[in-house]
């Protein structure tokens, strides 16, 4: 593990997915998209901040022409449970009409975030919409979302590879479970 993250790693109860496991799965996801979206110009809508590393890694493996739009979508406010209110900075100039849209996010949990964004995208009548997440939690959704997932995980709060707890741990190269008491 790089020396700059050893202190942060000590805050983990356990590592769920290593950098190597993540990289291998992201490569598989990109390979599939390269086949299924071959010949199209793809408009990526990438949700920040959590999606930062997944999007950066996946996009560099896509071979078709890509346009990138990043949106900030937040509802956890650094905590371990959704506030239920998804705040989105949808740019006034963003128009997805007639485009082949690829919506990307780090994690599908309650479904509230991707549900809200999907609704906004579909209002603009894209030619197609496909959604990919790195992680999908096995749990009942508050909103149903159709998405391809890199990994199905148990219903535990995870950090790393873009995902935070109180603004920290996004820079972990792995994905893990915290040993901090979330109530502390
Ligand atoms: O399916 P849901 O229950 O809606 O959870 C998923 C969302 O939660 C996280 O965002 P968060 O609100 O933490 O903002 P962030 O991406 O800026 O960290 C994550 O990045 C997803 O966008
Ligand atoms: N950091 C983090 N953000 C989330 N947003 C929804 N679920 C999670 C999670 O398990 N961890």
TrEMBL record:
UniProt enzyme class: transferase
EC number(s) from the headed UniProt entry: 2.4.2.8
Catalysed transformations (reactions): IMP + diphosphate = hypoxanthine + 5-phospho-alpha-D-ribose 1-diphosphate; GMP + diphosphate = guanine + 5-phospho-alpha-D-ribose 1-diphosphate
Gene3D superfamilies the record matches: 3.40.50.2020
Keywords recorded for this protein, A-Z: Glycosyltransferase, Transferase
InterPro entries to which the protein is assigned, alphabetical: HGPRT, PRTase-like, PRTase_dom
Single GO BP term: guanine salvage
Pfam families per the UniProt record, alphabetical: Pribosyltran
Ranges where the Phosphoribosyltransferase domain occurs: 20-165
GO MF terms held by the record: hypoxanthine phosphoribosyltransferase activity; magnesium ion binding
The keyword Isomerase belongs to this UniProt entry's keyword annotation: no
Organism ancestry: Bacteria, Pseudomonadati, Verrucomicrobiota, Verrucomicrobiia, Verrucomicrobiales
Protein name from the UniProt record: Hypoxanthine phosphoribosyltransferase
Domain of life: Bacteria
Gene Ontology CC annotations of this record: cytosol
């Amino acid at each position: 593990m790089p020396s700059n993250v050893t202190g942060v790693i000590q805050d983990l109860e356990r590592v769920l997915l290593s950098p190597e496991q993540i990289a291998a799965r992201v490569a598989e996801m990109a390979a599939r998209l390269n086949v299924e979206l071959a010949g199209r110009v793809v408009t990526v809508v990438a949700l920040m901040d959590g999606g930062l590393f997944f999007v950066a890694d996946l996009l560099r493996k896509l071979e078709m022409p890509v346009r990138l739009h990043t949106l900030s979508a937040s509802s956890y406010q650094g905590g371990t449970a959704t506030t239920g209110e998804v705040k989105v900075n949808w740019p006034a100039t963003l128009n997805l009409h007639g485009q082949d849209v690829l919506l990307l996010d780090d994690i599908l949990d309650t479904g509230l975030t991707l549900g809200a964004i999907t609704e906004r995208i579909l209002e603009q009548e894209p030619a197609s919409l496909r959604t990919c997440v790195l992680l999908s939690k096995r749990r009942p959704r508050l909103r149903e979302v159709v998405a391809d997932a890199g990994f199905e995980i148990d219903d535990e709060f995870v950090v790393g590879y873009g995902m935070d707890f109180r603004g920290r741990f996004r820079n972990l190269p792995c994905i893990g479970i915290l040993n901090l008491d979330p109530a502390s």
